[in-house]
Amino acid sequence: MNQRQTVAERGGAGRPGKNGDGAERHEEIHRSISDAIIEHRLRPGARLREDALAEVFGISRTGIRKILQRLALEQLVTLTPRRGASVTRPTADEAKDVFDARQMVECGLMPEVARRITEEDLRELRDMARRERQALKSGEQSTAIRLSADFHARLARISGNATLADFVERLCSRSSLILAVYGNPGHLGCESHDHDDLIGHLEAGNGERAQAFMGRHLKAIEASLSIVEEAAEAPDLHRIFSD
Amino acid sequence: MNQRQTVAERGGAGRPGKNGDGAERHEEIHRSISDAIIEHRLRPGARLREDALAEVFGISRTGIRKILQRLALEQLVTLTPRRGASVTRPTADEAKDVFDARQMVECGLMPEVARRITEEDLRELRDMARRERQALKSGEQSTAIRLSADFHARLARISGNATLADFVERLCSRSSLILAVYGNPGHLGCESHDHDDLIGHLEAGNGERAQAFMGRHLKAIEASLSIVEEAAEAPDLHRIFSD
DNA sequence: GGCCGGCGATATGTATACAATGATCGCGCA
DNA sequence: TGCGCGATCATTGTATACATATCGCCGGCC
């Protein structure tokens, strides 16, 4: 296949083969795909063919494979041997696990977050909440979903624990997938004012209240899902036709 | 390079190119390297050259790279662009984050574990604890370290939450690295009788006590570390020679 | 005598070619 | 006419070849 994209990109950089070039390009592509999945522009089950992606982004399959593997480890895509990659379709069990994990970690982090939060953080969080509300109001679901996930991830990072923050970030990404499969259309996960209320508790330095509120918030999201295990691959015919 | 190993392996399988073959082989190699790191047979900082690994395991660099990337995502190896892979040397900050995370998650899991644990689980855990004690006594540090990590991971899995169990498993692997860097020789992380005591609390169905005990257990491990940030790469010459 | 710059070696990053496998579609047969 | 079977095709898995950047060494220069 031709490589017009590659040439254009490299030509623009001035000197071909610059060091950070490749790595940053990969990072960029990873984020592109990741965002598309989180924003539900790629629905669960969508197939991701290596050739197609390679052509779109103007790199060879080698680089695409690397990125797909990373996405697979983040459980955003599923790699079926000899069958290729597709956007992960979370099971009901996984959905429960993810929300239980968020309940434990995000709530547990709130006291520390309340202790460490700065004015700068508060300003940024308020801005994110505002943009999210705005996106919701103007019907930009994709943007709202991503901003919501970003909000939770950003919050966790304030705790100062990078390991737990990374974990929360991945849980939020997966939650977005779960919403895509089990969410009711028109009823987004996070209520528009919830995040603002949470910011209020944190601003007041009330970690306990923030923790409790986060707990209710997550429970509310989980409760809004209609988790009905749609006939899986390999429906149990015996059970279905037993009577 | 020749491929005698590959031929031998494939030939032994009976039919060449069997489906699971490649994937399982990769899994096996991943575990080999992972174990070597966890068991401190590969010390932090050790370089992992692709050619050398490819030759040792009888596959091409392509497969090795895939495995190295996975290990990097699990934060067991560090991939420096253009410099290759090396066993991760955890910083003091990372060590603190990892143990704080374990404190939150492993302790938080105990009540559910106490609720769900079965006789079969108890038997298995006791066996692992026994083998660990035995390894400690006979001076097989490597084995003891791995068994200790396995014990904690196994415990978390009983909770039924695969997501959190995976997380704990990775935290334990990283803890092993941390022990390699900051641990005092001759003083292994987990006291030999701690795990047995923990099993006792779980057998009694006392989740709260198990939770508290796990908390003390982890704190004890963390306290046994001598975390002194050894002069990092790029010593701050200004600060050093300012007086 | 010490430092800077060039040069060769080594190892990684990338692309491509080839091989193998699973899926799809068409054909023949019952 | 429906089903089973076989060939072709599309797609992934693997290895290898080539380009490129970095590291260490050595010689010249200040």
TrEMBL record, chains A, B:
The keyword Membrane does not apply. Keywords: DNA-binding, Transcription, Transcription regulation. It comes from the Bacteria. InterPro entries: GntR_C, TF_FadR/GntR_C, Tscrpt_reg_HTH_GntR, WH-like_DNA-bd_sf, WH_DNA-bd_sf. Residues 1-26 are annotated as: Disordered. PANTHER family: HTH-TYPE TRANSCRIPTIONAL REPRESSOR NANR, TRANSCRIPTIONAL REGULATOR, GNTR FAMILY. This is GntR family transcriptional regulator.
